[in-house]
Design a protein that fits this description.
This protein has 155 residues and is α+β, with helices and mostly antiparallel strands. It has one domain. The chain has three helices and five strands. A five-stranded antiparallel beta sheet has the order 3-2-1-4-5. A hairpin with a 2-residue loop joins strand 4 and strand 5. The protein is elongated, with a radius of gyration of 23 Å. The protein starts with 5 loop residues before the first helix and ends with a helix.
Length: 155
């Protein structure tokens, strides 16, 4: 059995904390950007131009990638939207909002539509994994401290 040491426990704890904090900040910034886009963006209509469904083990099986097309000042943009699979067909129209300074940056105007595919389950799963890594690090740290105490008490 490999000897567990204090350094390995500290590394595991720091890794779990770092990943949790990094993604928390990333998702908070993304959420703030989308809120800002919804309040300050320009509204237009987008048409579902393509739906791709993937049947992979590690990708949500059956969850489609929905691509919408919209025009801004004569330029056509195509973007992927995260939507649930129910009732979305090619040719359907959605009201979207885009950034006038960067028209390729867009989202649903109606926040409830975007929430269908927002990845919340993935967020929770990632946080659970981070907590498990932190707990594992604490366990390794305790074992390392106990082993060090045994070594010093033998001397």
């Amino acid at each position: 059995m490999a000897k567990m040491n204090i350094r390995d426990g500290i590394i595991a704890i720091l890794l779990g904390v770092f990943v949790a904090v990094f993604f928390s900040i990333y998702w908070a910034v993304e959420s703030a950007e989308l809120s800002s886009l919804r309040s300050d963006g320009t509204v237009t209509t987008a048409v579902v131009s393509e739906i791709r469904t993937f049947e992979r083990v590690l990708v949500r099986s059956g969850s489609p990638q929905v691509f919408v097309t919209y025009s801004v000042d004569g330029v056509t943009y195509t973007n992927r939207l995260r939507v649930g699979s129910s009732g979305v067909n090619v040719g359907d129209e959605f009201v979207i909002v885009y950034n006038p300074n960067a028209p390729d940056r867009m989202t649903f105007l109606d926040e409830s539509l975007a929430e269908q595919g927002d990845g919340t389950a993935f967020h929770y799963l990632l946080y659970i994994v981070c907590v498990l890594v932190i707990l594992y690090g604490i366990w390794i740290l305790q074992k390392g401290i106990r082993a060090k105490r045994k070594e010093t008490s033998k001397e």
